[in-house]
Amino acid sequence: MKIRPFYDLNDCQDDQEDILLKLRLLLCQFSSFSIKINEIDSFIENNVSFMKCDEQSTNHLKQLRGQLAQLFSNCLKNDRNTYNPHMTVGQFDSQEELNQAKPSLSKRF
Questions:
Q1: What are the tens digits of pLDDT across the range 70-81?
Q2: Which domain of life is it from (predicted)?
Q3: Whole-model pTM?
Q4: In this structure, are residues 21 and 59 in contact, taking their beta carbons and an 8 Å threshold?
Q5: Which of 36, 47, 93, 102 is 20 to 30 A from 25 via CA?
Q6: Where are the domains of the chain?
Q7: SS3 of residue 93 by DSSP
Q8: Where are any strands of DSSP class E within 15-69?
Q9: List of residues 6+ apart from 22 with CB closer than 8 A
Q10: Considering only the top CATH level, what class is 13-106?
């Protein structure tokens, strides 16, 4: 997840401690969880192939992101409500290259 603007934690020890304290207090409310990747998919508009999480993993990540967004609302680049947790595998130069790579990537899942 990208949190913007990026904090320069080297310049001010007080800011660093304040941010870390807020994070610790938030994260201690969450139990640890596993992420399960179960599918390869793609964003057609930019020829990006990515791995998708299962529904339970997605729900955990969305809940965590929502809490982080509330805590650091000034860091959000935009206020989109859609958040699709994923791991980018690669970006291809063309739709044709993406289509050629899909079978090879998908057979792992």
A1: 888 877 776 666
A2: Eukaryota
A3: 0.72
A4: no
A5: 36
A6: 13-106
A7: coil
A8: 37-43, 48-53
A9: 71, 72
A10: alpha beta
